[in-house]
Amino acid sequence: MFARSVLRAGRILTNPARSVARTVSASPALLTPLPAASRWSRAYASAATPVSPTDPKLGHAQSLLEYGTRALEEGDLPRAKAAYEESISVMPTSGAWFNLGVVEYQLAGPLGAIEAWKQSIALEPSADAYTNLGSAYMMCKPPQTAEAIKALTAAMEIAPEDPEIQFNLAAVLESTDQLDTALTLYRKALSGGVERALANIRNIGGKILAKRLSDEQKPEDKEDK
């Protein structure tokens, strides 16, 4: 299992190096199984900073962001989407794009979400946006594992000690048979408190042992021939 069951929290333009509005409860659709079953993206942003009295445009954009987030909390995805799109039309912010990605993910799947999270990152890179981007790439058909690895690696560069990101990256690496690196990351995730990593460590340890035994037998097979 991947480490998250909700979409990761994000941040707005004026508000991780990590000043994020973490763990606001949401009800996103669960992701369907991947090689290790994925449910691991993160929640949504809210305007944590006060509305700017000197910039009415930004203030209006933030008010629309908050309105959209209330609609998202109430489960009204079309109203949330409309509010985020209007906020972006007034003044694009990382948070509005991030939240639009959350809504797009639930309404239409990963492709629209990918574009929204890319826009969020372009304005203000965050580990949470990169994590969600990695999730969306893995939900594409077929999964875009190379892009997912790039996104999760970027997330780790911002938040190198985040055990959930370590776990998620390890799961994608395991699916591409990069077993030794995946094992190292699973161990870090376990030490960081992701207890489910223990099962993955045991499983991947067996895979590594089987691969080594197979590699050792190959020279003998050639000699027999």
Automatic annotation (TrEMBL):
Organism domain of life: Eukaryota
Q: What is the lineage of its organism?
A: Eukaryota, Fungi, Dikarya, Basidiomycota, Agaricomycotina
Q: Name one GO biological process term.
A: protein O-linked glycosylation
* Keywords of this entry: TPR repeat
One of this protein's Pfam families, by short name? TPR_16
UniProt repeat feature TPR, residue ranges: 61-94
Task: State the protein's name.
Answer: TPR-like protein
Q: Name one GO molecular function term.
A: protein O-acetylglucosaminyltransferase activity
Alphabetical list of PROSITE patterns matching this protein? TPR
Keyword Transcription attached:
no
